[in-house]
Specification:
Largest sheet: 7 strands, mixed
Distance between the termini: 49 Å
Strand order of the largest sheet: 6-2-1-7-8-10-9
Structural class: alpha/beta
Helix content: 40-55%
Shape: globular
Number of strands: 10
Number of helices: 11
Oligomer: single chain
Order of helices and strands: HHHHHEHEHEHHEEHEEHEEE
């Protein structure tokens, strides 16, 4: 597949407009590896031709397929460990106290293949087991992603042994999954039923999401320009209740916005509280 400089520049502009992702100038190899197969199937020879076809045939579904291929990421169970411990030991007890008699709402933004929201759901179950009766109204997890095909897979709650091996302990596997045969595992219904999956673009309006006590937006802001990142963080703030918490990725930091968020050191890890 041809990735001339002009073609690649056109594609970068298209991708940022479509979903906010800002590709580095040296990311031709990433585009090639992600789109090679799709372009071969469609008989498309260059990125310029790909962008042109998306623009001239808006109903072909090609735009969605390309965004899908470029935004799909494999992820881990209980990624970085500490956010889930902080959730159980600090954030859940605080939020239960601050919102007595209310169901907690948690947003997992850019949930990818579902490991994050299901890990949150398992962490909530572990909290309930050691704090019986505290989370009286339960919790709802809204998990969103741009990729329709990814969400369809998430909803089944089924994973192969390769995905299971990424960060899941034997104890949690035994407790929260049922073997399905042929090296596949399914998440048990009580863990799955706490999670609601929705297709959502972080560049769209957040009005339909409602208010949250806790937001996980981890390892996604790194793909955006500084301006888009700031805009997303402002809009996430609009969805958080005062005193609610935002979890970012281990390599991400919230610079600026001192009127909106307060940094909370958790040792290990940092989280942000909405002012």
């Amino acid at each position: 597949m041809s990735t001339g400089n002009l073609d690649f520049e056109q594609f970068r502009v298209f991708l940022e407009k479509a979903c906010g992702i800002l590709l580095g100038e040296n990311k031709q190899y990433l585009v090639s590896s992600r789109l090679n197969k799709l372009m071969e199937q469609q008989g498309i020879k260059s990125l310029g031709e790909l962008v042109q076809r998306i623009q001239t045939q808006p109903r072909s579904g090609l735009r969605e397929q390309v965004v899908d291929a470029m935004t799909t990421n494999e992820t881990l169970w209980f990624r970085d460990t500490y956010p889930f411990e902080v959730l159980k030991n600090k954030v859940l007890p605080e939020q239960i106290k601050a919102n007595p008699g209310q169901r907690l709402r948690i947003w997992s933004a850019a949930c990818s293949s579902g490991q994050e929201p299901y890990s949150i759901s398992m962490a909530i179950d572990e909290f309930e087991r050691s704090n019986i009766g505290q989370l009286k109204m339960g919790a709802q997890i809204v998990a969103t992603d741009l990729s329709g095909s990814m969400l369809a897979n998430c909803k089944t709650g089924e994973y192969d042994s390769l995905a299971i091996a990424r960060g899941l302990s034997q104890e949690r596997l035994q407790r929260y999954f049922d073997p399905k045969g042929a090296g596949r595992w399914a998440i048990k219904a009580p863990i799955r039923s706490r999670v609601e999956f929705r297709a959502f673009n972080l560049l769209d309006s957040y009005a339909s999401l409602g208010k949250f006590d806790i937001v996980f937006c981890r390892n996604v802001l790194i793909y955006f320009s500084a301006q888009v990142k700031k805009d997303i963080l402002m809009r996430i703030h609009g969805t958080l209740k005062p005193g609610g918490y935002l979890f970012l990725g281990a390599s991400e930091a919230l610079n600026g916005l001192p009127d909106h968020y307060q940094m909370v050191q958790c040792s290990p890890g940092i989280i942000y509280q909405a002012k």
